[in-house]
Amino acid sequence: MVAVMAHSDRIIWLTSGGPDGRLTRCVRGLPWGKVSASGIIDVLGNFAFALALSRAPLLPVALLSGMYPVATAALAWLVVGERLAVRQRWGGGAAVVGAALMAAS
Q1: Dihedral through CA 88, CA 103, CA 49, CA 76, nearest 10?
Q2: Measured between alpha carbons, how far is 54 from 32 in angstroms, rounded to an integer?
Q3: CA separation for the pair 45, 60 (Å, rounded)
Q4: Residue 11: phi, psi to the nearest 5?
Q5: pTM of this structure
Q6: How far, in Å, CA of 17 to CA of 24, rounded?
Q7: How far apart are CA 74 and CA 3, in angstroms?
Q8: pLDDT above 90: residue 83
Q9: C-alpha span between 59 and 65 (Å, rounded)
């Protein structure tokens, strides 16, 4: 049995792995360096979150960790040059100001 799934420029082949009939996956065209770096950064982020929870009060840690979409948009703007809509800029600014006000209280 062979099944093919296509996603943009990547093709994933699912083939039967042998006599037991389990499916194995062969992925071609993935940027494995970027995938590995993403996984390592994800693990480091989880470690940093756990470390922050063990050393700081919950409120500021939860506020800052909940602002990851703002950080993602800011990095996309700085690194990739992605354009942010006016609503996105206002929303990011309001989130930063709100987090600063809550952390200061």
Answers
A1: 20
A2: 33
A3: 16
A4: -120, 130
A5: 0.54
A6: 5
A7: 39
A8: yes
A9: 10
